[in-house]
Amino acid sequence: MIRPTLLSLVIGVLGAIALPASAQTTESGGLLRDPQGKTLYIFDKDVGGASACYDGCAAVWPPYLAPQGAKATDRLTLHPRKDGKVQWGVGGKPLYYYAPDTAAGDAKGDGVGGAWHVVRK
Question: What's this model's pTM, rounded to 2 decimal places?
Answer without folding.
Answer: 0.77
